[in-house]
Amino acid sequence: MAGSIETIKLLREKSGAGVMDCKQALDEAKGDTETALKILHKKGISAAAKKTSRAANEGLVESYVHHGGQIGAIVEINCETDFVARTPEFKALAHDIAMQVAAMAPVYIDHTDVPEDEDSLSDDSLLMHQTFIRDPSKAMQDLLSEAIGKLGENIVIRRFTRFSLGD
Fold it and tell me: Which residue, 52, 59, 101, 104, is most buried by CB atoms nearer than 10 A?
């Protein structure tokens, strides 16, 4: 039994999911941690989809200025409660998103923000479709879905602005 408890702890550390979710995923995966991680990832995405209808009126504004001070970004990230907004995980997410905006210069958050008269638009100009700069195996949408699953609240990137010296 001690081995399974250690496996659950390991899976919980890797995924940020709850103890019972980790146990159920391990049972479903017959003890294989990699398969259990995939199961939890799928559940996290479906949990995120269920939470998107909830109001996200709290949050924070995060800024990032790149070394040298020539590029910077400000983002507004919203969640459901101020309790979650003060957590280190939420603050780290906001910082990562601000850094992504500064580095990759997206134009819009996703397709819902694109004006109707805008015809030719690549996925690279949409923040949620970009590859995450810190982990190229993830898209920004995946990063947001994982955070929603870990923190248990709806999280919305409300707006952002990127500044570049001379632009």
Answer: 101
Q: Is the pTM of this model over 0.85?
A: no
CATH code for the domain of 29: 1.10.8.10
Domain count, the chain: 2
Do residues 67 and 37 share a domain? no
Range of the domain at 118: 58-164
Query: Residue-wise pLDDT tens for the chain (167 aa)?
Result: 444 788 887 777 776 666 777 888 888 888 888 888 788 777 765 555 555 556 778 999 999 999 889 999 999 999 998 999 999 999 999 999 999 999 999 999 998 888 888 877 887 899 999 999 999 988 998 889 888 878 888 899 999 999 998 87
